[in-house]
């Protein structure tokens, strides 16, 4: 069972389900956890291995069909580690600065307080993996794919981003993927699924 701290009760978190053991037969090395959270609460997740090394996880929130705010957590053990602790931090959603000259904040654990931790174990050593980084923004989106941080040259990626709130059924935004060289790739809005989709092939330079 998870170990919980005061933050868990302060923000009225509720664990729905989790998968914290990886067998040698599992196809991937990802640990999963989902929670019900309050409308104004966001989370951050990481795994701290027994040797003290850490790996940043991915914690994203969206509104389900029952109008409940659900936080879905994915995390992996640091490279070559087989056990550790999945730590989940929680707190009020980050309000970005109104100053256009200020760079957007990357969501990190310093924005929140530790709410819970749960033991994770794996029967196989994990390969290195970095999840996509999330930034503070007034418009909240759920990155369905790709969820990896690094994209590789000459590879084709299907991007799918979902509006995280139910009111995106009536309101949508223009979204685009910006490459390192500044080129923009527009994402097409799919109103039936509330998603923004597009296919991008990464160039060599």
From TrEMBL:
Domain of life: Eukaryota
Boundaries of every CYK3 C-terminal Ig-like domain copy: 138-200
Name listed for the protein in its UniProt record: Cytokinesis protein 3
InterPro entries, sorted: Ig_CYK3_C (IPR056409)
């Amino acid at each position: 069972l998870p170990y919980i701290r005061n933050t868990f009760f302060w923000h009225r978190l509720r664990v729905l389900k989790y998968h914290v053991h990886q067998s040698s037969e599992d196809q991937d090395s990802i640990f999963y956890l989902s929670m019900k959270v309050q409308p104004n609460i966001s989370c951050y997740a990481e795994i701290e291995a027994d040797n003290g090394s850490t790996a940043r996880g991915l914690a994203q929130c969206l509104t389900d069909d029952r109008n409940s705010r659900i936080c879905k957590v994915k995390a992996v053990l640091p490279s070559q580690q087989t056990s550790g602790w999945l730590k989940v931090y929680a707190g009020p959603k980050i309000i970005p600065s109104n100053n256009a000259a200020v760079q957007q904040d990357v969501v990190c654990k310093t924005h929140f307080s530790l709410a819970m931790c749960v033991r994770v174990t794996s029967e196989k050593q994990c390969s290195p993996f970095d999840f996509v980084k999330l930034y503070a923004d007034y418009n909240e989106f759920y990155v369905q794919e790709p969820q990896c941080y690094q994209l590789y040259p000459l590879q084709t990626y299907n991007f799918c981003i979902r509006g995280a709130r139910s009111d995106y059924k009536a309101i949508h935004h223009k979204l685009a993927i910006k490459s390192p060289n500044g080129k923009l790739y527009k994402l097409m809005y799919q109103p039936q699924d509330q998603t923004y989709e597009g296919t991008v092939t990464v160039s060599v330079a």
